[in-house]
């Protein structure tokens, strides 16, 4: 498989972006980056207090993730990295694509009840479950012209990685050329 340059594992908090992203990167043998590591301390403090970020708060974060993707995509053949990033709105994904046009977005999906239960079991993370509603309200699913796939998080992480790899294969056109349409495996 000639995978896309950089895969962005996206979705609301609690979908397993970090877990699936790290497993996917290991499977592909490429670097993995956790988007939370790109947040300035002020963003972490704001979310920890239960306040959602504004677009102005997100700007330096998205710029840093875009720079990471661009650096990995430069002169790379095949997949050069995996990064987790909520990328909830189309304009955020557009900003990331402006930095690295070859991105593939893997949207991890789940209903509010499932994700809320998962967040309730999570320990040691700065993102409180009280912000979940604001994330679902902001979420703009991938559009038909966006390169990516949606995968439901109802299965175990290794199964999700297999589904992600299947979606990546299906997203490639003849001769390993990426297609532009979003696909929803299983």
Structure overview:
The protein has 186 residues and is an alpha/beta fold. The chain has seven helices and six strands, in the order βαβααβαβααβαβ. A six-stranded parallel sheet has the order 2-3-1-4-5-6. The longest helix has 19 residues, at 55-73. The protein starts with 5 loop residues before the first strand and ends with a strand.
Q: How many distinct beta strands?
A: 6
Number of separate helices: 7
User: What's the number of domains?
Assistant: 1
Beta-strand content bin: 5-15%
Features:
single chain, six-stranded parallel sheet, 186 residues, Rossmann fold, 7 helices
How would you sum up this structure in a few lines?
The chain is α/β, with parallel strands linked by helices and 186 residues long.
Write the layout of secondary structure elements.
Blueprint: E1 6-10, H1 17-28, E2 32-34, H2 41-48, H3 55-73, E3 81-84, H4 90-99, E4 104-109, H5 112-121, H6 132-138, E5 148-152, H7 157-171, E6 182-183
């Amino acid at each position: 498989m000639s995978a896309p340059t950089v895969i962005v594992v996206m979705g609301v908090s609690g979908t397993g972006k970090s877990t699936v992203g790290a497993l996917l990167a290991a499977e592909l043998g490429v670097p993995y980056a956790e988007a939370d590591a790109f947040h300035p301390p002020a963003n972490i403090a704001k979310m920890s207090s239960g306040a959602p970020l504004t677009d102005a708060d997100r700007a330096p974060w998205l710029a840093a993730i875009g720079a990471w993707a661009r650096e990995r995509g430069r002169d790379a053949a095949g997949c050069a990295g995996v990064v987790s990033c909520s990328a909830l709105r189309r304009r955020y994904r557009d900003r990331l694509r402006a930095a690295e046009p070859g991105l593939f977005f893997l949207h991890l999906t789940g209903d509010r009840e499932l994700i809320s239960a998962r967040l309730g079991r999570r320990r040691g993370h700065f993102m409180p479950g009280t912000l979940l509603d604001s994330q679902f309200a902001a979420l703009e699913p991938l559009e038909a012209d966006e390169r990516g796939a949606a995968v439901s998080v109802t299965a175990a992480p290794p199964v999700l990685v297999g589904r992600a790899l299947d979606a990546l294969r299906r997203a490639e056109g003849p001769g390993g050329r990426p297609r532009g349409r979003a696909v929803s495996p299983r």
